[in-house]
Design brief:
With 495 residues, the protein is α+β, with helices and mostly antiparallel strands. Helix 3 crosses helix 6.
């Protein structure tokens, strides 16, 4: 533990020292660790190498100033850590042999290997045979007989693999060292003496106990001053950080009058008229109205909108303003497995209604009514085992302009057509015709999958594939395939 703390403290101090030295561009040395000097030229080579790795793995052509600054910090911190661990490992006789490194590559499960392009296009797993083929081709590379772009590609990939191999070796050495330290026994003279005394020192203790009930109350005198003094000493322990009193209250429902409704309708009508004349900067206009829902200039699927809004989209033209109008229902009733959980209504103080119910498998159904007449129903059921895929494009007809997009929602369903919210299946996509995959996503912010790919894992049972027209007219077909599930297809036309 002492060694580990010392290493961490040294790396922290060295890192601060490096930040202090950074502005002195005239210095020939970047820094010194354990008596080993790192020249500015070697440090810059390390920064350039890591920059190329970042650009290659993230599909970037250039890096921002902030990214370059972070890369410099990472390179220096990594160098300090590797130098310190290498020095300690050498003292202990720890090393990583070529045989060990080859065994890790053959196993192919190390996270570093999963970040390389040497992966099976069908399974996504690291493919050692693909790596071996590349290394053989790279070793036999004759630059004079190949186009310049192929030579540059092989050199870039060769440098990238050298970086991965070196990083892999350093990480395995660090893991060996940390495992050794974690399993070692480190003591000090004070702790050793305390343990020794605990084993050898003995004490004789005689304890007499008298129950308080055996003492007569008449023999005890307690004054008011004694009580007040004890209260002052103990009162802090009686304080309650959370309110525990039972406070009764009344709930009065306030219903708007007809005059209130007319005033609100007048205000909304005025905003509607202003919206009709507004042709740009919708964000500023919506903000000026005091709307509780901010304006976002991002395309969304109509399924995320309230049902009364979504039902009008197909019949509404661009820039058309509808309203004002009142919502289509007065009350909503919730059923869990056919048993009513009560009826609730919205009011001016609540924009939505909700129930707190105990989970049980089956179905949840809501029924909306207007003046006692059912105007809408919605039911969801507990999902079973994933069985099939459903594809839902936001548009089936695109413009053949080379830029138009169709956002296709991908859902994993059970045999009854219910969405499986816990599904995380890997879905692969095949496109035929005049469309290509512009990107994929699943809404999982922790996902490390690429956006530009022909596959994606679903998150909470869903993912998204974006199709783009290639500038040609005609029909195209998207097919979604996942192991063990019934595949799905959808046709999209470009005009």
């Amino acid at each position: 533990m002492v060694i580990v703390i010392g290493l961490a403290l040294f790396a922290f101090i060295a890192g601060d020292a490096w930040k202090i030295l950074q502005p002195h561009q005239g210095k020939q040395d970047a820094g010194e660790v354990n008596g080993n000097t790192l020249s500015a030229q070697d440090y810059q080579k390390m920064v350039d190498e890591f920059s190329e790795v970042i650009k290659l793995t993230n599909g970037l052509n250039s890096l921002s100033e902030d990214q370059l600054t972070n890369i410099k910090d990472q390179v220096w911190n990594t160098y300090v850590t590797n130098e310190l661990i290498a020095a300690e490992a050498k003292k202990l006789g720890l090393k990583v042999t070529d045989k060990e490194l080859q065994a890790i590559i053959d196993e192919g499960t190390n996270p570093l290997l999963m970040q390389t392009p040497f992966r099976n296009p069908q399974t996504g797993a690291f493919d050692k045979d693909m790596l071996k083929k590349f290394l053989v081709d790279y070793a036999n590379l004759d630059a004079s007989k190949m186009p310049a772009q192929y030579v540059e590609y092989y050199q870039t990939m060769g440098n990238f693999w050298k970086f991965v191999e070196r990083t892999l070796k350093q990480s395995v050495l660090a893991e060996k060292y940390q495992n050794l330290i974690a399993k070692s026994l480190i003591s000090n003279p004070v702790a050793a003496e305390d343990v020794f005394n605990g084993r050898t020192a003995q004490s004789d203790l005689l304890l007499a106990g008298i129950p308080y009930s055996s003492i007569s109350d008449s023999t005890i005198t307690v004054s008011n001053d004694d009580i007040k003094k004890l209260y002052e000493e103990k009162k802090e322990s009686f304080k309650q950080p959370v309110e525990t009193r039972d406070i009764k209250f009344i709930d009065v429902r306030v219903v708007p009058s007809e005059a209130d409704r007319q005033e609100v309708q007048k205000e909304v009508t005025e905003y509607s008229n202003q919206l009709i004349t507004t042709t740009n900067d919708y964000t500023a206009f919506i903000r000026s109205t005091g709307s509780v829902i901010p304006f976002a200039d991002v395309p969304v699927n109509k399924t995320v909108l309230p049902s009364d809004v979504a039902s009008r989209l197909d019949s509404t033209s661009v820039n058309e303003v509808y309203g004002p109008y009142y919502n289509q229902a007065d009350e909503v009733e919730l059923f869990v497995n056919g048993k009513s959980q009560g009826i609730k209504s919205k009011d001016d103080n609540h924009l939505h209604v909700f129930w707190r119910v105990k989970y049980e498998p089956g179905s949840v159904k809501v029924v909306a009514r207007k003046a006692g007449t059912v105007v809408a129903e919605k039911e969801i059921r507990t999902a079973g085992t994933p069985s099939m895929i459903r594809l839902t494009p936001d548009r089936n007809i695109l413009k053949a302009d080379g830029t138009d997009l169709s956002f296709v929602t991908v859902e994993i369903l059970d045999a009854e057509g219910n969405i499986c919210p816990l599904a995380d299946n890997l879905v692969r996509f095949e496109v035929e015709g005049n469309l290509f995959i512009a990107g994929v996503d699943n809404g999982n912010q922790t996902s490390m999958e690429r956006f530009k790919d022909n596959k994606r894992k679903v998150f909470n049972g869903k993912c998204l594939v974006v199709l783009q027209n290639n500038g040609k007219t005609g029909a195209a077909r998207l097919k979604a395939i996942s192991e063990g599930l019934k595949e799905a297809v959808v046709d999209i036309v470009s005009e």
